[in-house]
Design brief:
Elements: E1 2-6, E2 9-13, E3 30-35, E4 39-43, E5 48-50, H1 53-71, H2 77-110, E6 114-118, H3 122-126, H4 131-154, E7 157-161, E8 185-187, E9 193-195, H5 196-219
Parallel strand pairs: 3-6, 6-7
Antiparallel strand pairs: 1-2, 3-4, 4-5, 8-9
Helix pairs in contact: 1-2, 2-4
Bound molecules: zinc ion.
The site of zinc ion has 7 residues, from loops.
Length: 220
């Protein structure tokens, strides 16, 4: 058990050891997810999961409260109050985010047997100075933690692949098609024309399957 102090009060957390595995019917589906900035993710079937509206809204609210706080005089009680308000806002938004990540992850795991994504490193995420990028990275990280939690619970497979060249390679012929971040379409000489992130997601799925095969081969 541990006691935690949050902006809106004290909480008591219990840690209990229970078996949470649950049998579900196989869905016979495999999927890969590519993280984006404008969307929460794009999957290998071309579906784009939009960022919930509270992402933008929350970001704006935080900026506003931050500005208000910085205008208050140091050491004043008004500053203290403003700081508390900011902390509460942070808390509310982070709860919305983790609730969203949890719900979405459960849904993805229940509709697929094999889920692949990029292995994004947390230490790289913290270094980022672009606020909206940083927020989306943190959101993605939470989402991934929940994906792995539910995969374990429902007996599904998750594979994280190194995030190299997934957006540059053609998912059809393997050729490297250089594109800048602003190029949203993947267009290859082999005739493949796909949404940039969908192309990346297909590459992630292929790489994940390869690495799953490799790990089976090392075992046998
Ligand atoms: Zn191609």
């Amino acid at each position: 058990m541990r006691l935690i102090r949050r902006a809106d009060g004290y909480y008591c957390q219990f840690c209990i050891n229970v078996d949470v595995t649950e049998e579900v019917e196989p869905t016979q589906q495999a999927i890969a997810l590519d993280v984006g900035l404008s969307d929460f993710y794009t999957d290998s079937l071309g579906h784009k999961e939009p960022n919930p509206r509270f992402f933008r809204k929350g970001e704006k609210e935080l900026k506003r409260s931050q500005r208000r706080l910085s205008r208050k005089q140091k050491g004043s009680s008004n500053r203290k109050k403003a700081r508390q308000r900011l902390a509460k806002k942070h808390l509310r938004i982070s709860r919305q985010r983790s609730e969203h990540a949890k719900r979405l992850a459960r849904c993805v795991v229940l509709s697929n047997d094999f889920i692949a994504y990029e292995d994004l490193q947390v230490r790289n995420l913290v270094k980022n100075h672009n606020l909206s990028k940083a927020i989306s990275d943190v959101g993605w990280y939470q989402f991934r933690v929940w994906l792995e939690y539910f995969a374990k619970k429902f007996g599904k497979v998750t594979v994280a692949v190194p995030p190299h060249y997934t957006s540059q390679e053609c998912s059809n012929c393997g050729r490297i098609v250089k594109k800048s971040l602003s190029t949203r379409t993947h267009q290859c000489h082999c005739g493949t024309c796909l949404d940039r992130d969908e192309n990346a997601a297909i590459n992630i799925l292929r790489e994940a399957l390869r690495s799953a095969i490799r790990s089976v081969e090392t075992c046998s």
